[in-house]
Amino acid sequence: MLSSLFSAFSPHKHKPTPTGVRTIPCTVLDLLAANGLVLTTGLVINGRLDAKVLEESLQVYEFQIPETFDVKTPPAIFTVDDYPEPYNASGRPQIPRALTGSQPSIIPFPELDQFFRSKTCPKTQADFLKPNVPLLHIHFTIFHDFTFIGVTVSHVGFDLLGIAVLLAAWTRVINGDDFDTIPGMEWDAQPFAHFVPAPGSSSLTPTRTSLRGWFKLGWLSQLSFIGRFVLSRIRDPKEVGYLVRVPKAFLNEEKRQIMDELKAQGSSEYVGSSDVLMAWWHKTIYSYRAPTDHTPVHLHFAGNLRSRSVFAQDGPLAHPYTNNAVSHLPVPPIPVNTFVTESLGELALRVRRAILAYNADTASLRADLHWLFEGSNATKMAFPCPPGAEFSYTSNWRDGKLGALDFSGAVVSNSRPEAAATQVVFTYFFLTPNRVSSPPRGCGIVIMEDEDVVWMAQFRGSKDWERIRQSGAVAFAGH
Prior knowledge:
Number of helices: 11
Helix content: 25-40%
Number of strands: 13
Largest sheet: 8 strands, mixed
CATH class of the domain at 207-399 and 436-476: Alpha Beta
InterPro entries: CAT-like_dom_sf
Structural class: alpha/beta
Strand content: 15-25%
CATH superfamily of the domain at 207-399 and 436-476: Chloramphenicol acetyltransferase-like domain
């Protein structure tokens, strides 16, 4: 059924839509980076939840393409593994929630995949394209003291903030909110339609050859880029993902010191905690590099388009939107040795200035979108940096507020003290075909925050991680 999602941008001749089936529009933003990926977002809740309550509260939503549902064509698939014992009873992987400390640390990924996907869950986009396979698969693993909720979707249909929209609405229903008061997404929503040029119209971006921050290279430069890429994999073949735990007290103190310095200089500039987070991370991972290394580093940040004034009447989106809506914010290239020599405050200001310049230039953002939606531009090969440079790509989904989700309405009676809050204590995610190779090294994601900690997932070569560890710039758990 998901095949209908691809109809709007398929290079093949469109087939007639079957009777009783709706077509959910898909855009180049869905296909640009998400095509072929299956995304699982996992939540760990500190309580035993009632799977029946969870399932019934989500059944009120319509996620499927068919106009009607029955036993053979359900709107979503729910699977449950129920354990009466506590989670830690059999030496299972430690959930990082128990970690403490006032300084950032690097932590191995706990092997939790089995608790978030059932054995029958689709694992590839091709599996989702099979007949009568719902768009949404929910798996519950329930222990006496923890409940694991895994939400698996084709990435073409949802980005992480889209899943956050779904989860926020779901928990409102669980906690008794009137369903009719919860804003929803129209099944035929097309917020980017005005960026698609009319057939036969002239080019809207005659001088644009690629997306801002991305490079259209000649064939010699392409060979050089690919050769360097392959050589780096030969030298450091194993990709490894780690969790990065960054206490908010650390970020807030660093931010306070930076702001005090700016105030003492008479500056009106400011930095946010996310600016400090990104500056700290890149200063940390390049800490072992030589002070004479001038290799340019291109930083790319993925941001949420939903709040940008590029939609109807040049305003933000007025309604929820679960499909992919991501922009790409480039930071002017920074030499590697700058991360070694500049202060954290100076680096955070570089990030903040790039964000401010990007946000102020709405005209260029619209031009980016016009270019992406024009012809086959989205499928043209573009590179995150020229040959001889390096890149780092980070998605920051703190706006998803996954750590603030409230599942208390589904807690099994008498399973926990009344005074104890039911919270999402950890968020986990993985992509297939493979969590380690997708996203690739040099990429990361800020996956959640709670009152005390911001969590990131980062992917790099194993030898690179070892050099970072040996630099002493950040503590590695277990070392």
